[in-house]
Sequence to fold (399 residues):
Amino acid sequence: MHLDHRRIFLEQLAPTSESPLLIEIERAQGSMLYPREGLPLIDLIGGISVCNIGHSHPHVVRAVQQQAERYMHVMVYGELVQAPQVMYAQKLCSYLPEKLNCIYFTNSGAEATEGAMKLAKRATGRTRILYCQYAYHGSTQGALSVMGDEYFKRNYRPLLPEAYMIRFGEEEDLLQIDEMTAAVIMEPIQAERGVIIPSEDYLQKVRAKCEQAGALLILDEIQTGIGRTGKMFAFEHFEIEPDILLLGKALGGGMPLGAFVASQSLMRLLASNPVLGHITTFGGHPVSCAAGLAALEVLENENILEQVEQKGRLFEEYLSVIGARALRRKGLMMAVEFYSKEQCLRIINELIKKGVFTDWFLFAPHCMRIAPALNIPDALIQQACEIIAECVHAEIKLK
Ligand code: PLP
Fold:
């Protein structure tokens, strides 16, 4: 039966690479994945920063079931009052600075990027968008236009005109933010480059330069948001506020949901001239919003945010002595850097055989991603790190 699934997967589902993992998942619970064959896997990536409270938390499952029984899709976004959207928007705003008081729910992170770029153009009347080298904001054509790696863009050009790249963390490049710039879009911590954390004052300088030029600052917290770095939003570490905030991944508590967040006065611009300035059928799906709200309640009720730094340190203690080239971390967002892409991939594959599930990064295939559920038990951290140490030592011996 499962062999058949694998064949159909390979033949009838569109591929994204030549070498998919091909592990069939039977179920997932907490920080564990249970494949149909082979060992259970300690999940150290949580669906790539999605499952911040673990898989299938009973509170979230209940919220999904109850909302599905009440109603699922009833009308396109923005017309009918739907309690899960309203309640989730209110709850999210209670965590945000005063000026980020209006939420546009989307289906995905990429769609949040698209909406935010349109809003910035509309709000400033300008056309230029600056983005960072090695940035990832999604795979649709607008988001691809601001992806910071030509390899992924080349065969899909022409993309958006007036998108210009700057180097992340280089103050000198901030001179390019000028009165023609509609927006600067960046991640506060670059995820896919392998967790690159900027200097304390870099983001403050970006913020100040945007202010001076009248350009909007769009911060992409699709990966860093909802507690991943130990604060609800990573911008809090840097004491700045964006004009537009992008959310996704963990926002839906395991269901598909994204959002761009701005001030009410900015968001109103999307409602006129032309009317329906940004529209979506499924954005803010009531079941996704109910799941996201329930996940945030779990984060609060189980004091999960307070434990992120301690759990991150525990990983760091174990992993700083295994012989990796470098380790970068903010909260529970970590990159373990090895000496080559091949070495990293060998280690990741060995780990899967031994019961630990990790991954590499899009622009840093020599780095191993660790971004587990924020409530991963300490005992599982220890167990996973011991297996990682074993695999890394075996790999080093092999050399
Ligand atoms: N922005 C960042 C920082 C991301 O990591 C991702 C997804 O990996 C996206 C945007 C795009 O989100 P989605 O895959 O939901 O379109």
